[in-house]
Amino acid sequence: MRDLLAITKALADENRIRAVALLEGHELCLCQIVEVLGLASSTVSRHMSILHQARLVETRKQGRWAYFRLADEDAPDTVRDAIVWVLAALARDKQGKLDRKELKAVLKMEPEELCRRQGECKC
Amino acid sequence: MRDLLAITKALADENRIRAVALLEGHELCLCQIVEVLGLASSTVSRHMSILHQARLVETRKQGRWAYFRLADEDAPDTVRDAIVWVLAALARDKQGKLDRKELKAVLKMEPEELCRRQGECKC
DNA sequence: TCGACATTTCGACAGATATCGAATTATAGG
DNA sequence: CCTATAATTCGATATCTGTCGAAATGTCGA
């Protein structure tokens, strides 16, 4: 029950669902997700930690960068099915489509350049 | 996105998940769910309302009693898949099994007798 | 019509959660 | 070694949420 609840709670937030949608098919670093969601990096870090604790997202650290990806085939059934369900629901969703569009633009920038840009523009 | 979030939020509470589990295969009236969950009836009513707004649960009123059942085949795909997912996850769960066991005892009482019993024992 | 009663709604309150900015940690490169 | 920087952790705060009991609503039976 605790595992199940961790998953539903992790998915009970709009920005975390958007993050899951962004990760479909890609591995992304934190600053890329920050760019699309438009939240403070500390906030996004927290969100990703919650998704990770629910085992929906895997983490990999490389140098200064933290990379995130969706859990893969060897995750527990409950986790895998949850991801399949969310992605299917989002496939019919408007906000999901908007985010994916913006993500394409963000993906064109190298992570390094992107992080630099975030440092500059304190808008 | 709003629909999807309504579902994940509805499922992001332990007592609401237990309620969904109880409804598998049955239609139950409010006082039966109250008996198993051990919460104030006003609280359970609120929980069922949240599940209903997410379209996970259908409501039927008959006389003084309110009956609840899981959404059926003509619910939206996202709703149906969510129910399937939760029930599958709960099938492997300990608390789910405990609740189902207690439910059997509660189901042996008629709703009418049950409600009377709740009135008497203000423990 | 009146009283009993199952349910819902309302008001209050405690605890959880999302968010930010500041401080901290860890790492790459000069 | 020292600095810049990506990420995380921490402290504060505002909002949301679960819960209860009291009041309101609607329905049955006398």
Automatic annotation (TrEMBL), chains A, B:
Gene3D superfamilies: Winged helix-like DNA-binding domain superfamily/Winged helix DNA-binding domain
HTH arsR-type domain segment(s): 1-90
A Pfam family that the UniProt record links to this protein: HTH_5
InterPro entries cross-referenced by the UniProt entry: ArsR-like_HTH, HTH_ArsR_DNA-bd_dom, HTH_MetalResp_TranReg, WH-like_DNA-bd_sf, WH_DNA-bd_sf
PANTHER family: ARSENICAL RESISTANCE OPERON REPRESSOR, TRANSCRIPTIONAL REGULATOR, ARSR FAMILY
Lineage: Bacteria, Pseudomonadati, Planctomycetota, Planctomycetia, Pirellulales
PROSITE patterns: HTH_ARSR_2 (PS50987)
Keyword Transcription regulation: yes
SUPFAM superfamilies in the cross-refs: Winged helix' DNA-binding domain (SSF46785)
GO MF, one annotated term: DNA binding
Name the UniProt record assigns to this protein: Cadmium resistance transcriptional regulatory protein CadC
Keyword entries, A-Z: DNA-binding, Transcription, Transcription regulation
